[in-house]
Design a protein that fits this description.
This protein is mainly alpha-helical. It is about 65% helix and about 0% strand.
């Protein structure tokens, strides 16, 4: 599997499970209806775990343009590879969003709450304030990237064998995303990932969803620019502390 395809698959799995848990909680007549914020944040964290486990050995499992940009600024990833990673992440995110809609199509049709259906695809602020919303996305992504940059690869190498964490190494990243959702996600829904928000937002705009709300393009720049700014600040601080 090439890094490009790995990023597509990893991001797709992230959105299938992340968007899927939101659909399970907010749509009518599902077994998970009204499951609450703990269920949603846990589902997203486990979605990150699955995406990282699958894509990690082949691409490093960025599955987030902010991660790719942050690693590149910190000289841990080549800039020339950033565009193809971001393209793959958007393809994966849009594909994942389509699969969530297809899986829950009957429940979309059984639900009249248009804003809730939109929230399956993309984030929205609890209180609309451009500065506060932007700051929320910046600080959430800052915590994500600065921690990712300090996560070490616990691997022991000798002349005969390599002993490492393997897939279990994805657990710290899952816990990190879970912590961000629990502690910082209540303001904007913690996009902290431009592809995760903009890709599915595009799918919300084009899919034939009944009683569809506006895709809120006026807000759409915040979950794109905020994470990129947060990643830049985190990587810059990391470099200055070396």
């Amino acid at each position: 599997m090439t890094p490009f395809f790995a990023e597509i698959i990893g991001t797709m799995l992230l959105i299938i499970l992340g968007g899927g848990v939101v659909a399970n909680v907010v749509l009518n007549k599902t077994y998970g209806n009204n499951g609450g914020w703990i269920v949603i944040t846990t589902g997203w964290a486990l979605g990150v775990f699955v995406g990282v486990v699958v894509a990690g050995p082949y691409s490093g499992a960025h599955i987030n343009p902010a991660v790719s940009v942050g690693l590149a600024i910190a000289n841990k990833f080549p800039w020339e590879s950033v565009p193809q990673y971001i393209l793959a992440q958007f393809i994966g995110a849009m594909t994942g969003a389509f699969i969530v809609w297809l899986t829950y199509r009957d429940h979309f049709n059984a639900t009249e709450d248009a804003p809730s259906k939109k929230n399956i695809f993309c984030t929205a602020p609890a209180i609309r304030n451009w500065f506060s919303n932007l700051f929320s996305e910046v600080i959430g992504t800052f915590v994500l990237i600065i921690t990712v940059l300090y996560i070490t690869d616990a691997t022991i190498i000798d002349t005969n064998q390599t002993v490492g964490l393997g897939s279990v190494g994805a657990i710290p990243v899952a816990f990190l995303v879970w912590a961000i959702g629990l502690s910082l996600g209540g303001t904007t829904g913690y996009a902290i990932n431009p592809a995760r928000d903009l890709g599915p937002r595009i799918m919300h705009a084009v899919l034939p969803i009944n009683d569809k709300a506006s895709s809120d393009w006026q807000y759409s720049w915040i979950p794109v620019f905020g994470p990129l700014l947060g990643a830049t600040i985190a990587a810059g601080l990391y470099m200055s502390l070396l």
